[in-house]
Amino acid sequence: TSDNGETVTASGTVDTSTIGTYTITYTATDAAGNTGTATRTVNVIVGNISTTSPTYSYDYRVSGTSQTIYDSMGTGNKTSFVNTTFSIANGAYFSQASNISTGSGAQATDAHGRIDHFTLTPSAFSIEVYFTVIKVSTWERFFDFGNSALNYNITIARPNTLNYPQLRFAHAGQYSLTQDITSVSVTNNPLHIVLTFNGTNVTAYFNGTNKGSYNMTAALSATVTRLWYIGRSTWPCPNIQGYFKFARFWNNHILTQTEVTELYNNRDNILSFSRQSNLLNATRIGVGINRPTDAN
Question: Among candidates 22, 46, 32, 24, which has minimal Cα distance to 2?
Fold first, then answer.
């Protein structure tokens, strides 16, 4: 019960610029020293954005041990993981089991993810990925989307011993495009990469900035999506060690610079497009002060 004469103090803070769940605890104390508490749970989630919703959205910033993450757009497609751990802050964590110093190839049990096969329209689609690499070997792929080792592969790799990301496209047994997209070190730096395709050209965006458009020599195949690996290569290379936060795909849509900028600015704030809501969602669960029973 309450007589409206209590002193109330609050503990805890809410950062409305950072997604997450926050708890505020209120403590009320009356003149007799009796106390009571109430808690308010505040969920800071994404606000609406104007970017076209993706066709497939795989957000790996979750808690739990399930090795299956479903597309949040409701298609039923999924990413299947192997020996991967997850956190809301960093997404899927790939530990590197194979010996990177000796260059031993990845094993089937090494941590990685594989996205279900789906078809994209070669003349218009876009890819967005966000990840952080802790350790990577020579030529290792951060992601590798294609049919086999050199058959319509779209990859971002570490070229030779150089420690920056390189865009590569392989067709008919050889690479027809190898393009450095930044000189920024891949190690321990969050990498936000968007690739847009119009059939024969790909435009690469790194951390929101257009790094150029490049000709792939050969047109993409509609079946370029049979092996979609994240944290792994179709080649027998060690897998990466690092975090993968999300992967999104737009079919029949080429993202604009405005959309890429908005995606980059919200890269740490968007949980998934299907979960858009108001910025602040709050639920309060409260109790009053419990006083001793008055003596008669």
Answer: 32
List of residues 6+ apart from 221 with CB closer than 8 A: 122, 147, 152
Q: Which residue shows structure tokens 């050199």?
A: 150
Which secondary structure element, helix H or strand E, spans residue 250, and what is its range?
A: strand 241-251
> What mean pLDDT, rounded, does the chain reach?
74
In sequence order, the β-bridge partners of residue 242 are 94, 133
For the segment 16-39, what is each residue's pLDDT rounded down to a tens digit? 556 667 777 878 788 788 887 777
210 vs 51: CA distance, rounded Å:
17
Tell me how far CA of residue 74 lies from CA of 63, 91, 208, 271, 274, in angstroms: 20, 20, 27, 15, 8
Place of tokens 């195949």: 221
Which of 125, 129, 169, 127 is CA-nearest to residue 147? 169
